[in-house]
Amino acid sequence: MKSVIIGTAGHIDHGKTALVKALTGIDADRLEEEKRRGITIDIGFAHLELPAPGGDTLRLGFVDVPGHERFVRNMLAGVGGIDLVLLVIAADEGIKPQTREHFDICRLLAVRRGITVLTKSDLVDGETLDVVRLEVEEFLRGSFLDKPSLDHPKSPIVAVSALTGAGLDELKQAIRQAADEVTAKDSTSLPRLPIDRVFTMKGFGTVVTGTLVSGTIRKDQELEAFPGGRRVRVRGVQVHGRTADQAVAGERTALNLAGVATEELARGMMLAPPAIFHSTWRVDVSLSLLPSARPLKDRARVHLHVYTADTVAEIVLYGPKQLAPGQTAFAQLRLTDPALVLPGDRFIVRQLSPVVTIGGGVVLDASPLPKPSKEMLGDFLRVLDGGDARQILAARVARRSQEGLSVARAVGETGWRKEAVERHAARLVQEGILLKFGDMLVPARAVAELKSSLAKTVADFQQRNPLVSGISQEELRERVKASPEVFAAVLHLLVRDRKIEVSGDVVRLPGRGVVLKDEEAESKKIIEAAFSTAGLKVPALKDVLAGLKVDKARAQKIVTLLLRDKVLVKISEELVFHRGALDDLRQRMAARKAKSPNIDVAQFKDMTGVSRKYAIPLLEYLDRERVTRRVGDQRVIL
Ligand SMILES: Nc1nc2c(ncn2[C@@H]2O[C@H](COP(=O)(O)OP(=O)(O)OP(=O)(O)O)[C@@H](O)[C@H]2O)c(=O)[nH]1
Ligand SMILES: [Mg+2]
Question: Which of 491, 463, 464 shows the shortest CA–CA distance to 476?
Fold first, then answer.
């Protein structure tokens, strides 16, 4: 069974509701006020099953829209999910303003198929009908209602009378044909239900309705309501008024929801699977201005309509600062209220005052980067606009560069199923365009750049800090600006290729743990021996260094190494001791404590045999080390 949504369109009073009733037996005008005034105010619904030409069943859902110019806003809430339009033109009136506006809207929304219906044929004679037909043919020329595609026969124009029933069979025939030919909405993709009605049903609680524009929704499924992120559970599903286990894309759907009050939901919100998508305030689009519109200035504010949602948006033009009538350009829409939109969604923009439709287009990116460079953005949007899925995924990963794009995020950005993302990713990996580390997709070029910048950063660091064993992982990651996942993966690749070594937290070039040359090794021994044999009566460091074969810088490096390894200990700016001598001193202090708990400077000098110049810094060192504590002129040995 194929499900197709058919929308009406056309000027007020041209017979849309009467036509839907003549076809389905259902009066789509459900409001008391509509019945009283004899006009449609809000969208209404009806359904019909017809046998498809091939014998299958076509399940047709009708969305009947109001023609009144004041209710175009409601019309827009209904037209978003339609597959097929019935453009209704009364034979006794011909083309009127909302005939044009609704037709413009259908074109901007890229409705691909439709049938033009000349209603009220009983009110005109044959000649008048022929004249109207000619006028209408002229009006439709070159549009999807003339010929949907080059290799397709002309779309029909059918004259009917809802009053006498004339032409209805011919129209049903045309509907069967067209509905059979339209591409069915994808019921395997992620479900999205733009809400068009919310109400309470006695004994059920909250019920929402909408045209399921993609995917399948099952009983007991959990969904998220956007914007706001409210989680709800589907307690029951109805399709075309009948209880069902599931609703599939292309069906008029009613859901009984648990976990949410009626007041928390409204027309314009969207139901989708939980924890995948985000509402957005900024959307990059391809925007077309109608030939009948006035030129559009950069930063113009407009009414924006996407599916059932509407809000005010500011248009930031990416190209020239003004868009001419009939032109198409890339732009960013900055929404007043957030909404869940996805690439491929169609939208309509209307002027703030007077409120008329001026243009529309298609969403390219609902997760724009904060400050992309102009050239990069242009290239990116061109790929999104014209590229195939594989190219689009490659571009989305490429713009994230070393940050990478996780499969989960790619799903949220594109609205594609995880399997689809993974399938395209696998091909791109095979082609060497992307690399995949766990769930993370990274452009191969960015990985190559990251590899070399990482190795170079480590090398630079080691050159500048020869005596430090390497750079810490966190510091390195901050310097190369990669996401933790990508950084870890690339680090791993470099280790595998023996381009770097990792020990604990430290990253270094291989074999560059600090290695000393022979002369340096010899000098190191000399220094160590000089201090070791001196005990506490240490020589001045500069005198020791002066006696070495190596130059000053290298000598300094050796000292730094000895200090780092705690062979030598610096206790003041001038004084350096061998660690053995200091350990020995501690022991002697401990031994003295057994005899007397106190010691003064003179006694210390006697005990150690050092001059005052050494005694004071040594005692201060012992204080710091908590071997002694100064009390007046004395030290208490701890
Ligand atoms: N004689 C005749 N009258 C018709 C026909 N179709 C509709 N009407 C009448 O035209 C009037 C308007 O019809 P509707 O079906 O309400 O028109 P509509 O296009 O739905 O109007 P809106 O929803 O307000 O835009 C009603 O009084 C209908 O009875 C027809 O085929 N023949
Ligand atoms: Mg009506």
Answer: 491
Ligand nearest to the CA of 69: 1
Measured by CA distance, the residue closest to atom 10 of ligand 1 is 15
Amino acid, single-letter form, for residue 543? D
- pTM assigned to the model: 0.79
Residue nearest to atom 29 of ligand 1 (CA): 18
Give the distance (Å) from ligand 2 centre to CA of residue 244. Answer: 29
Whole-number Å distance between alpha carbons of 266 and 196: 8
Q: Tell me, what's the pLDDT at 514?
A: 58
The ligand placed nearest to the CA atom of residue 92 is 1
- Closest listed ligand to the CA of 123: 1
Q: Omega before 295 cis (within 30°)?
A: no
Per-run averaged pLDDT (10 residues), the chain, 638 residues: 95 97 95 93 95 91 96 95 96 96 96 96 96 96 90 91 96 95 91 96 91 96 95 95 93 94 95 96 97 96 97 95 96 97 97 95 95 88 96 96 94 96 97 94 94 92 78 88 88 90 79 66 84 88 82 82 83 88 90 87 91 91 92 89
For ligand 2, an ion, list residues with CB under 5 A: 16-17, 40
**Closest ligand 1 atom to 160 CA:** 31
CA 45 to CA 41: how far, in whole Å? 13
Place of tokens 């990416």: 318
Cα-to-chain-centroid distance, residue 635: 68
C-alpha 178 chain-centroid distance: 36
Among 13, 73, 117, 164, say which to mutate for ligand 1: greatest number of ligand atoms within 8 Å of CB. 13
Give buried/exposed letters for 477-503 (b at 16+ CB in 10 A, else e). Answer: beebebbebbbebbbebbeeeebbbee
68 Cα nearest atom in ligand 1: 25
C-alpha to C-alpha distance for 505 and 214, rounded to whole angstroms: 48
Ligand 1 pocket by C-beta < 6 Å: which residues? 12-18, 38-40, 66-68, 119-120, 122-123, 161-163
In this prediction, residue 512 carries a pLDDT of 59
Q: Cα of 370 to ligand 2 centre, how many Å?
A: 45
Hey, what are 538's tokens?
């240490």
Centroid of ligand 2 to alpha carbon of 215 (angstroms): 30
135 and 100 Cβ atoms separated by less than 8 Å = no
In sequence order, what are the residues at sequence separation of 6 or more whose Cβ sits closer than 8 angstroms to the Cβ of residue 158?
A: 115, 116, 117, 118, 167, 170, 171, 174
pLDDT at 546: 83
CA of 76 to the centre of ligand 2 (A): 14
H or E stretch covering 448: helix 444-464
Please report the atom of ligand 1 found closest to the CA of residue 38. Answer: 16
- State the distance from the centre of ligand 1 to the C-alpha of 18, rounded, in angstroms: 5
What SS3 state is found at 609? coil
pLDDT at 504: 66
Strands (E), 155-291: 157-159, 193-201, 205-211, 216-218, 222-226, 230-239, 242-244, 246-248, 252-258, 270-272, 280-289
Structure tokens at 526: 């000399």
Task: Find the 349 Cα to ligand 1 centroid distance in Å.
Answer: 29
